[in-house]
Design brief:
Layout: E1 2-4, H1 11-15, H2 49-53, E2 56-58, E3 70-75, H3 78-89, H4 94-97, H5 99-107, H6 114-125, H7 129-132, E4 139-140, E5 158-159, H8 160-170, H9 175-179, H10 184-187, H11 190-193, H12 195-199, E6 206-211, H13 215-225, H14 257-266, H15 268-280, H16 286-300, H17 329-333, H18 343-351
Parallel strand pairs: 1-2, 1-3, 3-6, 4-5
Helix pairs in contact: 15-16
Length: 352
């Protein structure tokens, strides 16, 4: 098997629990792994079945279809993944979250670097999470209404150039975006990594999904379903940076329903592919798949588009979806979001 690490989905935590959780162009097993414990919670003892069977790792690199007999996709609600990436690379946070990116910006200030220019333009347009989640219906023909040339004013209006840039980047950008390390978390998303896997021959390679929202439970269950013991992973509470130092954060209580719904519309293609992966995941039960569909339903259903806050801080939830919670498929279909998204639909989608 191989781990497919999408950015901002706890993929780094997963990779640290794998003896082969390092790039394919480096020697394997990974450097230092011979002296590392891979027992439950990172202690001594038997290595997890997942680690024993996983021999590949892909992050910021193309995934070769059908090279491995199974692909483990690190996943997260696409809305939350994009919000996390936005916070992570924000110019006011980057010195704390990703120092090499901060140094890259500093080295290229005033040097007419197209990557830095696009990065700075994006955050001039959308300086806050709320601005990023503003509705496209607020587009105007001017500079945003406040005369300073940025993307939004106090009324949430967005100029056309900023609206186009947002839609372009949140949908993966282009080849240049893949090379722009300041914005490439947007480019290396579900469309890049997963669409080809969904369209591939499932008889030769299987799809597995580990969901950040339910990571502790998914890891234990996957080990058991592979025939192993109920192994617990390590590093679930490890933070790579101090959140209290961040200047720009998700507001207390999170985005409201209307804002999350706006992002749902902007991320429709990413959500379709995410739901396709959930549906094809051989390690998830029907109940677990229903829970993930319900989480998307909560964001994307027009009937849920109101001002009540909707926000759950990331937690390793082990609760299950109550049997009484049925997914309203009609409301998502009204947005042309296919809950089940079979592989043939994905392949056609990528050709359109």
């Amino acid at each position: 098997m191989a781990l497919v690490h999408l950015g901002k989905t706890a993929g780094s935590t997963l990779s640290q629990n794998l003896r082969h959780g390092c790039h394919m162009f480096t020697p394997h097993p990974c450097r230092g792994s011979k002296d590392k414990n891979f027992g439950t919670k990172g202690g001594p003892g038997e290595e997890s079945t997942i680690s024993q069977l996983t021999k590949g790792y892909y992050h910021f690199n193309p995934v070769p279809v059908n090279k491995h007999d199974g692909y483990i996709i690190s996943s997260r609600n696409p809305i939350d993944r994009v919000l996390s990436a936005f916070i992570y690379i924000h110019p006011e946070n980057v010195a704390y979250t990703t120092n090499h990116r901060a140094k890259f910006v500093e080295r290229n200030k005033g040097k007419d670097n197209e990557f830095v220019d696009e990065y700075q333009k994006f955050f001039e347009c959308f300086p806050t999470v709320n601005a990023l989640a503003a509705s496209d219906s607020n587009i105007n023909n001017g500079d945003g209404g406040d005369g300073d040339g940025d993307g939004g004013d106090e009324n949430g209006t967005i100029n056309k150039e900023c609206a186009h840039l947002r839609r372009f980047l949140l949908n993966g950008g282009d080849e240049k975006t893949l090379k722009n390390e300041m914005l490439n978390h947007f480019a290396f998303g579900y469309k890049y990594y997963v669409s080809g896997l969904l369209a591939a021959d499932r008889s030769t390679s299987r799809i597995f999904v580990l969901r950040q929202e339910h990571l502790a439970k998914d890891w234990i269950n996957f080990n058991v379903r592979l025939g192993g013991e109920p192994h617990e992973m390590s590093g679930l509470r490890t933070k790579s940076f101090a959140k209290d130092k961040l200047a720009v954060k998700i507001p207390p209580g999170g985005l409201n329903k209307k804002e999350r719904h706006n992002l749902c519309l902007l991320l429709k293609e990413e959500i379709q592919i995410y739901l396709g992966a959930i549906e094809e995941a051989d390690n998830l039960t029907e109940e677990e798949k229903a829970r993930s569909r319900q989480e998307i339903e909560n964001d994307c259903s027009p009937k849920n588009n109101h001002e009540n806050p909707h926000y759950v801080e990331y937690e390793d939830s082990i609760s299950s979806l109550p049997q009484s919670e049925a997914v309203d498929t009609n409301s998502l279909q009204a947005l042309n979001i296919d809950l089940y998204c079979p592989a043939v639909s994905i392949s056609l989608l990528m050709m359109s």
